[in-house]
Amino acid sequence: MRGARHATWAVCALAVVLAATGCGGGNGNGTGSGEGVLSSSWGDPQNPLEPANTNEVQGGKVLDMIFRGLKQYDPETGAAENMVAESIETTDSQNFTVTLKDGWTFSNGEPVTAQSFVDAWNYAANVDNRQANAPFFSDIVGYDEVHPESGSPRAETMSGLVVRDDRTFTVALKDKFSTWPDTLGYNAFMPLPRAFFDDKDAWLNQPVGNGPYLVESYDRGSVMRLRRWDGYNGPDKAQNAGVDLRVYTDNNTAYTDLLSGNLDLVDDVPAQQLRNVENDLGERYINQPALIIQTVVFPFYRSEWTRPGMEKVRLGISKAINREEITRQIFQNTRTPAQDWTSPALGEEGGYADICGDACAYDPDEAKRLIEEGGGLPGGRMTLTSNVDTGSHRQWMDAVCNSINNVLDQGTVCTVNPVGTFADFRNQVTTDKMTGPFRSGWQADYPLIQNFLQPLYYTGASSNNGKFSNERFDTLVDRANAETDQSRAVELFQDAERVLAEQMPAIPLWYQNGSAGYSERLSDVKLNQFSVPVYRQIKVG
Question: pLDDT tens for residues 500-536?
């Protein structure tokens, strides 16, 4: 568990920030012109803000504000559109030529060049740098040389990346990957300036990106202050002077602060407030479908959960959960019982379908039979773990355990292990400290069915925190990625999902709507398809 160290990132010396806000960020009052500073609820990220080492929501929110990549996802449709890229061309879905637009710079004045991307990607892939998102680069030729399964790197760079000139580089993939360009809006693929490599510690204390905001300061456990970068020359300039991301360990407190006028934006309305939120906020309450699913993951790195017969136990646990009742009573129509491992927001053409079937259907008798046939819960009991600072997780975890306990009728065999903060919970998950099933909320990185499956369940993938490994699943994903016909690719991904339905490495619980509430000071508040506020569009005052 990482200690709650105190860090401060200060860039008040920058004239553009001083002009916009004054050193320290001001009091956040609106100016009447739509360009004040807004405050929003937030949670401390797990890691410092390296693009390739951030694979959770809270850090991702900040990276979305301070970086721009080759692609950017349209906030309404989710479509991957060129941002820094002028073009990404291929004739065979395996070898790509990337050309950058002219005129992009980092906030320290460095130009954004082809080398900025290639250096960042090589750094991310190198095993010595221990970047959580390294597997996102595993499709590139030469990845295995810089990221071997064991031992030190055998090369410094991936041979599949070649800089042709300041605005052009080529990428050679190991296999065909027809939708690879659409993945390039994800934070792992962001460029890095030379300042990062010249003095990484200094960069971490004062991040330099190429997006519409700058990090002014960060007091861990309290607030991160971001301010508009007036030198940003991209097409999506910030419409406000900045955003104060305030850390809350209880989203009920955040909601109370919103109602009392001490906070402008809550992007996760707590379950306890859902009965009243429409009366409290009226049209200032947002509730919309999002590319988010909640699951319960089993720790396959523990032998008691992978012994012969445990697939029946895992399936039985899934069938012991009364999703309909839990979503109705706790979440008030902001969650929908899951029928697969993706999201309805993908649409049927995008791959959403009832793949889970009976495995996700509440059936107490069948659940009890399967658990008994599989040899029972390990040691006769199980513990469900999650952070409890956001998302009403304690309430639904209690409800899930009650449902399982009622089905098994053996007393309190399912119990809850609440972890105080998201950052502490993620540190335990990513260091393989879980002894039983644990919560996993997945907010898509990009709107493709591939992103709901490969990062989570492919052998060795970046967010495969349960360490599930299945050769048939991996093969189907590889075939789907290589398929140039989109409908056929979706079919293959769905076949891979059927492996999950058989093995149940993670139990789909429910699809999550994006929800938010905001103060009367704000206008033009919207959530993107990933349920993240489009901060740059918000006007204040």
Answer: 999 999 999 999 999 999 999 999 999 998 899 999 9
Q: Give the pairing of strands 285-288 and 514-518.
A: antiparallel
How many residues make up the chain in this entry? 541
CA distance 208 to 112: 12
Residue with structure tokens 């001083």?
Answer: 18
Among residues 536, 541, 529, 522, the alpha carbon closest in space to that of 266 is found at 522
Instruction: Decide if 210 contacts 105 (C-beta within 8 A).
Output: yes
pTM of the model: 0.80
What's the CA gap between 309 and 504, in Å, rounded? 12
Query: Measuring CA to CA, how many Å separate 145 from each of 122, 129, 263, 308, 510?
Result: 11, 14, 49, 36, 40
Separation CA 399–CA 401 (nearest Å) = 5
340 neighbors 409 (Cβ within 8 angstroms): no
Give the start-end residues of each E strand in 190-305: 213-219, 223-228, 242-247, 265-266, 285-288, 292-297
Say how far apart CA 217 and CA 205 lie, in whole Å.
9
Give the N- to C-terminal CA distance of the chain in Å, as an integer.
Answer: 41
Report the C-alpha gap between 167 and 197 in whole angstroms.
Answer: 20
